[in-house]
Design brief:
Helices cover about 30% and strands about 15% of the residues. The chain is α/β, with parallel strands linked by helices. Strands 1-2-4-3-5-6-7-8 form an 8-stranded mixed beta sheet, sandwiched between helices. β1 and β2 form a beta hairpin.
């Protein structure tokens, strides 16, 4: 049994473990927007680097159906403040979820080569996070990318059955966070995805959360269709997602530098910030 899955078992029984306060975290560096070509189409990607090295890894965050990268600004900033580079693309397709899966896989492969102003990043240092239909796209991508650090579904929705097929073949550790059942999540579609995952390390419903609580800032387009958002539930969802990302990235040694600009040297080696005895950093399952 790997350390990741021992941690997953602990996840199911542990009490909520608070993330470090903002003052204790790495801080957020200069945010920027970069052009990218994903699934053969031109799009843009926001990059949120931590202010300081070492960095735990990279999280690619994918938005939901008809949404944009702007809907994950709050999560991206929290990830960066916790020491994870957040990379948030505008997905190039509206209804082609497989194509969006290809777009996410393209983004991972470009980061492995070095892209978006970042030094080359090992696949094992990259975790995929997706909300709603973005959860489906990132799951499809994760199944295609052996060695990826893990997948986190934020109230993921599978309207086609492609997600369940990908879930059954995924070999990376996975975490699923759920809202209350509603038409916007196909009345608990994410729960079926979780049950199809052989590599599931934790699945948790955030009591009282709506589908819109998994994005931030949200807007009336979402809340008019899917129910109001609560700042408390949004914060709880972000803390759970950030903690899960840190836990899935924990086996990888922190990166030596946040990014490499022209003439910028690597930061000096630093000791691994994680410890085998540390408790899971995301809340317990119900």
């Amino acid at each position: 049994m790997t350390r990741r899955f021992r941690t997953g078992i602990a996840f199911l029984a542990a009490a909520i473990v608070a993330l470090p306060s903002s003052a204790q975290r790495a801080g957020v560096g200069a945010e920027r927007t970069e052009a990218a070509r994903l699934d053969g189409q031109e799009t843009v990607v926001d990059v949120y680097p931590p202010r300081e090295a070492p960095v735990a890894g990279v999280a690619i965050v994918a938005h939901g159906f008809t949404r944009t990268r702007e809907r994950h600004r709050d999560l991206a900033r929290d990830l960066a403040a916790a020491g994870v580079i957040a990379v948030v693309p505008d997905l190039p397709n509206v209804v082609d979820h497989a194509g969006n899966g290809t777009a996410v896989a393209d983004l991972v492969e470009s980061l492995e080569r070095g892209a978006l102003g970042l030094a080359p990043i090992e696949r094992a240092r990259i975790v995929l996070i997706g909300t709603s239909a973005g959860g489906l796209a990132t799951l499809i991508a994760a199944e295609r990318l052996p060695g990826i650090a893990g997948w986190i579904g934020l109230d993921p929705v599978d309207s086609t059955g492609m997600g369940r097929l990908a879930a059954g073949q995924l070999r990376a550790p996975a975490v699923v966070l759920l809202a209350d059942d509603s038409s916007c999540n196909l009345f608990g579609s994410g729960r079926q995805l979780g049950r199809a995952l052989e590599t599931l390390v934790g699945m948790r419903r955030i009591d009282g959360a709506s589908h819109c609580d998994f994005e931030g800032p949200t807007n009336r387009v979402c809340t008019n269709l899917c129910g109001r958002a609560s700042p408390d539930r949004q914060r709880e969802a972000r803390e759970a997602a950030v903690g899960a990302a840190l836990d899935l990235l924990a086996p990888a040694r922190p990166m030596r530098a946040v990014e490499l600009g022209p003439g910028e040297p690597n930061a000096p080696d630093t000791q691994d910030a994680t410890s085998a005895g540390s408790p899971p950093r995301y809340p317990a399952s119900d």
